[in-house]
Amino acid sequence: MTKHQKQLIAVLSTVLLSGEVIGLIISVINQLKKGNPWYYVFKAYTQDSNIISMFSAFVLLLATIKAIRSESEISHKALVFRYVTTCLTTVTFLIVLVVLMPNKDPEVGGFMHNFFSGSLFWYHGFCPILALLMFLFFEGKHDLRAGSIILAIIPTFLYAIVWVSLVAFNIVPDEDAPYPFLRVHQQSVSTSVMWCCIILGVAAVVATVLYFIGREKSISKNETTEE
């Protein structure tokens, strides 16, 4: 990877980091205005995935700056971290498109609400799309292993387990669930299981597709070097 390419990655990482920070600030302010504790920003998968993405953008920025100064390649761990978080924010983007945007509830659904409302502009659209574009076209070789797929699915699995358990055992009331499909007492057990399987299935498909894309880039790079 050339110095120019690394500099471009550093710039894009800064833009992504800035977008994630702006989204987080708006989220905290909104929660405080509603009278909720600040930690409610961790309630939604959207926010959790973007907060993790924020840290990965920061790590990639530092790793890229280090690579530029030492004239070496960007840290493998930083790129794997980026792969994992890109999977998470891509799942967020797909859920918004397929589940939330078509919802008839004006507080949940609709294009304008989901992509141009407060922090959702950053968390539903700008940051997930930028993260995906960075992975596909700018970050280059990720040198992924098959285990990376499992690594990318684990955060979504843990999120589902935690929230289904909290609502199912009445620790959190249905109306406080972050998404309609997590209101387990307002739907059948089979419906709850179906939604969990769908979300985890989407996470698995996204992780697998991005894994093969990253792997293909790695193979292509190796083949070019051998030639």
Report on the structure:
With about 230 residues, this protein is an all-alpha fold. It is built from seven helices and no strands. The radius of gyration is 19 Å and the shape is globular. The two termini are about 15 Å apart. Residues about 225 have low confidence and may be disordered.
Can you give the helix content as a percent range? over 70%
Integer average pLDDT: 89
Task: Summarize the biggest pleated sheet.
Answer: none
SSE topology string: HHHHHHH
Number of helices: 7
**Total beta strands:** 0
Shape: globular
Beta content: under 5%
Structural class: mainly alpha
Radius of gyration: 19 Å
- Could you name the ranges where pLDDT drops below 50 across 5 or more consecutive residues? 223-227
What gap, in angstroms, lies between the N and C termini?
A: 17 Å
Give structural attributes.
227 residues; mainly alpha; 7 helices; globular; disordered C terminus
Give the arrangement of secondary structure elements.
Blueprint (H helix, E strand, L loop, with lengths): L2 H31 L11 H26 L5 H25 L10 H6 L3 H19 L8 H22 L20 H38 L1
Helix pairs in contact: 1-2, 1-5, 2-3, 2-5, 3-5, 3-6, 3-7, 6-7
A few lines on this structure:
This protein is an all-alpha fold and 227 residues long. It has helices at 3-33, 45-70, 76-100, 111-116, 120-138, 147-168, 189-226.
